[in-house]
Specification:
With 174 residues, the protein is α+β, with helices and mostly antiparallel strands. It contains three helices and eight strands, in the order βββαβαββαββ. The longest helix has 17 residues.
Length: 174
């Protein structure tokens, strides 16, 4: 993978919870404009803890305030209910502020892709996907198992074409 591209996988499931001595999967914590204040705080705390696990520090972003950035969000949805991608984008950008970039105003080009993963095993899938496993990101197989984001970002350089395809995800629309 190119050193010019910052990439991070954000699993959105907060793990398992013991309820009455049984393991019960917890619904993914997905940033969403429709969340109530308490849930927004829970999502923020959860996402920030993941970013810190990756070695990112708040108020010490990967990119500088002078950088003009492009950003791509892949939303791998495994839930039966779905959230419109436009309702996820702004809250996600806000959660990355201070860790990946100083301010979301740095982003000049944004691409978001919403993929309903159960479609892959249906009779009528609408996309095909190939994941580059040796991309340097741990747990890439989580994309096939749980709801998560793959975030890619880079600096827009003059006289350069933005990446037209992800170096990690090869996506074909059917």
């Amino acid at each position: 993978m190119s050193k010019d591209i910052f990439t991070i996988l954000l699993p959105l499931s907060s793990g398992l919870s013991k309820i009455h001595r049984k393991q019960k999967a917890i619904k993914p914590l997905i940033p969403n404009v429709n969340l109530k204040a308490t849930k927004k705080k829970q999502v923020k705390k959860f996402i920030h803890s993941i970013l810190k696990q990756y070695g990112l520090a708040e108020n010490n972003p990967v990119f500088s305030e002078d950088d003009k950035l492009w950003l791509r969000i892949f939303y791998f949805n495994h839930e039966s209910t779905t959230i419109d991608v436009h309702n996820i984008v702004k809250p996600t950008l806000d959660l990355l502020e201070g860790f990946v970039y100083p301010n979301d105003r740095n982003i000049k080009y944004l691409e978001s892709v919403h993929l309903d993963m159960p479609s892959l095993s249906s009779d009528n899938p609408y996309f095909d996907i190939e994941i580059i496993m040796d991309c340097g990101i741990n747990d890439m197989l989580k994309i096939y198992a749980e709801t998560c984001f793959l975030i890619e970002a880079g600096i827009i350089k003059s006289r350069r074409i933005l990446p037209t395809q992800s170096p990690v995800i090869k996506l074909t629309w059917l």
